Amino acid sequence: MRFFSYIGAIAVALSLSACADESPSNEAVSADALALQAHLEFLASDDLEGRDTGSRGHEIAAKYIAAKFKSLGLEPAGDDGTYFQRIKFRRSFLEENSASFTLNTGEDEISLDYPKEFITGPSAYSEEDDVEAPLVFVGYGLVSEAFGINDYEGLDVEGKIVVMVSGRPEELPSEEGAHLNSSKTKFAAERGAVGIINLHTPAREKVRPFEVSVMYQRAPSVRWLHPNGEPNVAFKNIAASAYVQHEAAEKLFVNAPVQLEEIFAQLEAGESPKGFDLGVSARLQRASRHEEISSPNVAAVLPGSDDKLKNEYVLYTAHSDHIGMTKDLSQDDHINNGAMDNASGVSVMLETARMFKESGQQPKRSIMFLSITAEERGLLGADYFAHHPTVPLSQIVANVNLDMPVLLYDFADVIAFGSTHSTLGDTVARAAGQLGIDLSEDPMPEQAIFTRSDHYPFVKKGVPAVFLMTGFTSKTEGEDGGEVWGEFFAEHYHRPSDQPDLPINYEAGVTFTNINFAIGQEIANQVERPRWLPESFFSQLD
């Protein structure tokens, strides 16, 4: 799972109840704790070396998952009659000492120091970039008719480099704001910009110092390739980029009608700054090199029984990749096993598949199980499938995503990120209620987790989705589930200690899997397909 900041553990319980379409009884089938343990211990074993995208360890994991699908008698749903959807990726590296940033004020040329004053990343599209253009400040760089925002209003950015402050206005709801924040490149490209300069801010410095970003500067970027070999670069006209340290950014405003100090004061006061021409130009240069890797999604289908509804699909997803080996030589253990992230989610999905197959009650709609690669690299495997689905995307009625269920305590509630945006919220509440488990509100809305796992590419394509996670309330007297969850995140997340010797509660895994199965049963058998709530921002995405 792709979290970036420490998450406080505060749970708010919300009990939901509603009338449901009649669903089959779950009494005849249940998840098996030993099966969950067997899957998890294999997928998170040292032999798989952290399951990094494109690695031998992840290939083994993918073959294991495909073998389990085959043993259940599920139909292949990958490419060419196989269980595998093989994806090619381009890994891009910034060439050493190739990045430069020269500012032309009309009177002087000023060079910014890399990486002390600015950083940049490689291009996934070209090997050499050299862009010179006037600079235009565009505030946050956001556009939203729903929220009455247009930071480009009255500005001509055609053929220019836009300069924007990082982040988004505080008054925006977290999930909607996160989606808009991720669309900044789109907004700039649609208006003809040729480059983007993001400004680090004093507020951001307090949360994540600029030096921390510099530490990750040498990491390659990864993009998936279309079948024709083209990288998934939607906005090729954006040929230059930079992230500028907040003090160094003052140099960009030497001829500006409003100085940067005033802009930062506006941000501090909760105001959204207006845009203007900066009266300077900049030349941004870089060189990139590319290499290709490949890695598979693994897909299988249990066909539905209804003559009409079998052509619709309930999609379960869980990412099988993790972050591989650590380069921290101060540690004896270098393998990031990813037991909770996300061997636990894949194990739950495999047991859910077995339950559907062995329940004796074939669902009306078809059920697709999709093990996804490259989640840790930016939701890439899910995004590829959303662009190149092996079944018509319009026939996928819902996505239930499993990512990092923390099975370390006897949870009394579940969290379903996205449950307030579609009718799936009621479905989850009913399914959990069958097992005496509550559905709780998102305890960390500021993290905008609904935009940060593999369901999100499907959401952007119009598919209603929920991301299911263990809640923060424990059934065990005196135990704070949120505290256990928070301790895992602080001490084990994306570290070698996320391994099978954690005190994993496989009986809690049984409960979680049974809920997951019940969710899919209701979706697969109800008359109407799930739908977005009309007031949801995500119901109106392009």
From TrEMBL:
Domain Peptidase M28 residue range list: 297-508
An annotated Gene Ontology molecular function: metalloexopeptidase activity
Q: Which PROSITE patterns match?
A: PROKAR_LIPOPROTEIN
InterPro entries attached to this UniProt entry = M28_fam, PA_dom_sf, Peptidase_M28
Q: Which Pfam families match?
A: Peptidase_M28 (PF04389)
* Residues annotated as signal peptide: 1-20
Residue ranges annotated as coiled coil are none
One GO term under biological process is:
proteolysis
Q: Which domain of life is it from?
A: Bacteria
The cross-references to PANTHER family, in alphabetical order and at most eight, read: METALLOPEPTIDASE M28 FAMILY MEMBER, PEPTIDASE M28 DOMAIN-CONTAINING PROTEIN
* Protein's name in the database: Peptidase M28
